[in-house]
Structure formats: C-alpha cells, structure tokens
Design a protein that fits this description.
The model is unreliable at about 10-15, about 40-50, about 75-80 and about 95-110 (pLDDT under 50). This protein is about 30% helix and about 10% strand. The longest helix is centred in the middle third of the chain and has 17 residues, at about 160-175. The chain is built from nine helices and five strands, in the order αααβαβααβαβααβ. The chain has a five-stranded parallel beta sheet, with helices on both faces. It is elongated, with a radius of gyration of 42 Å. By secondary structure, the protein is of the alpha/beta class.
Length: about 260
C-alpha cells in the first residue's frame, strides 16, 4: 500500500483545483507590488527599461505645493459630465433629508388640460332636459332621436340595448374626432347607467360634467300628461325610485343642478 504524501496542500488558484499541489518544476506565481516608491518611469527615449525612485511625499509637496493643494481629497471627488443639466440625458435629483418624504415635485400631480367635455343630462321624463338644451342652441345625442331614426317611432321601447349601444358609438365617434363639447340627452337615472359614459369619456381624456334636473315627481307627472307622447304613471314612479342624484365620486368634474322656479319665490 502506497503512503499518501504529507506535503502541504496548496490552495493556489493557479492550479485550478483546491488542494492540488503545484509541480516542483513550476515557478511560484508572481505577486505584484503596489508601492508607489517602486513605480517604473519611462525615459525620454520611451523605452521604459530604466527604473527611477520617486521622491518621498514630503519632498513632492515641497516641489509642487500648489498642485497638491488644488488636488481634492479622494473621498470628496465628484464626477464631471459634458452633458448640461436638463438636456434630457442628464438629470440631477436632490434627495430629501428624510428618505420617507418625497420631494414636492414628485408629490404634486401634473394637471393636464382636458381634450374636451362630455355633459350628461340626468332626470326623469318631463323634467325639462330637452327644453334646457333647446334654449342653449345645443343639439345633443338623444335616445329619442335615435328611436325615431332607427324605428320611425319615438315610443319604441323593445330595443333599448340597441338604442343605447348606437348612442355610445356616436359619442365614441365624436371623441375620436376630438369634438370639444358633447351632450347626451337621456335619463341616466342610476350610477350603473352613467358609469359607461364616464369610463369611455375619461379613456379619451375628456372631462365629464353632469346636469341634474332636480324636479319633483308631481311636476314631471303634470308635464307628462300635457305631452303628445305620454309615459304611463306606473313607469314614471318606478323610474323615480331608480333615480339617484349624481356625485363627484362617480368621476364628474362639475355638477349643475336645475330646479323648478316656484311661483311664490
């Protein structure tokens, strides 16, 4: 049985394996020296074969005192860039003293001007929506107008989904065309019915405003009886139970409330 050699294991990286011995005929790896006093100096001929001892630190400071004073400390060194600040490629950000507090420029949201406005009318039949638009010379996107165009009957109620999907398509076309003001004349009674208009308008960068016709049910019923196209009283009362006043939490940037002027007021 051969006995294992007791030579010390060499952990040098030059062998490539930990614990492998260096061959006896292989010289020891060179260890570089980083002493400033033994740095080689290139002579005038550029051969670099001559070695010149550098003078001590105190002697160098005496030879070039101004240069040593102008040289900044290593820990105070700051990088230099050729790009000007704010050029788009180089930006300088000042950190706050407290890392948990963001700078004011980051906390404030940049307010962008809206591309336009979408105005939703909200109210029962007979509350005065159509009259309000007519007095202002506005031609709104109206569900009644679409019923007349599609079915030649304003009172047609069988295809409500088709009517309002077409109405939304018309508004979408106006938003794509970037029309500044867009009006929708419909009852828009519930939050659910208004949510689709608001979501689509905001996706195009438009602000949404509401015109709420806060008219008592009895006044709407009285006006409804004098109209050529009447809505049954039962339907009117069910619609009144469904009516919900608009709120800013829905996404409206402005809410206008229209009320009936009292005679004794």
């Amino acid at each position: 049985m051969r006995r294992r050699s007791r030579r010390g294991a060499n952990n040098s990286e030059s062998t490539g394996k930990i614990g492998q011995e260096l061959p006896q005929n292989q010289p020891r790896p060179l260890v570089p020296s980083y002493l400033d006093e033994s740095l080689p100096q290139v002579n005038a001929a550029g051969t670099g074969n001559q070695r010149q001892e550098r003078p001590p630190v105190q002697q160098r400071e005496q030879q070039h005192p101004a240069r040593e004073q102008q040289r900044p400390a290593r820990e105070q060194h700051r990088a230099e860039w050729n790009e000007p600040v704010g050029s788009g490629r180089l930006e300088v950000e000042t950190q706050p003293e407290s890392p948990s507090v963001l700078p004011e420029a980051q906390t404030e949201k940049a307010e962008k001007a809206p591309r336009g406005y979408v105005v939703l009318a909200i109210g029962l039949p007979g509350s005065g929506k159509t009259t309000w638009f007519r007095r202002r010379g506005v031609t709104p996107l109206s569900s009644d107008l679409l019923r007349n165009i599609l079915f030649d009957d304003v009172e047609e109620q069988k295809f409500q989904g088709l009517v309002f999907s077409t109405l939304r398509s018309l508004l979408r076309a106006r938003l794509i065309a970037k029309m500044p003001w867009n009006y929708v004349d419909a009852t828009n009674l519930s939050v659910h019915e208004r949510r689709q208009w608001i979501k689509m308008s905001k996706s195009f960068g438009f602000e949404v405003q509401a015109v709420f016709f806060d008219v008592p049910l009895e006044v709407c019923l009285e006006r409804n009886r004098s109209r050529d196209r009447m809505v049954s009283e039962d339907v009117m009362r069910k619609m009144a139970e469904k009516l919900k006043a608009p709120a800013f939490e829905e996404g409206f940037s402005k809410i206008t409330v229209v009320r009936v002027k009292r005679e004794n007021a």
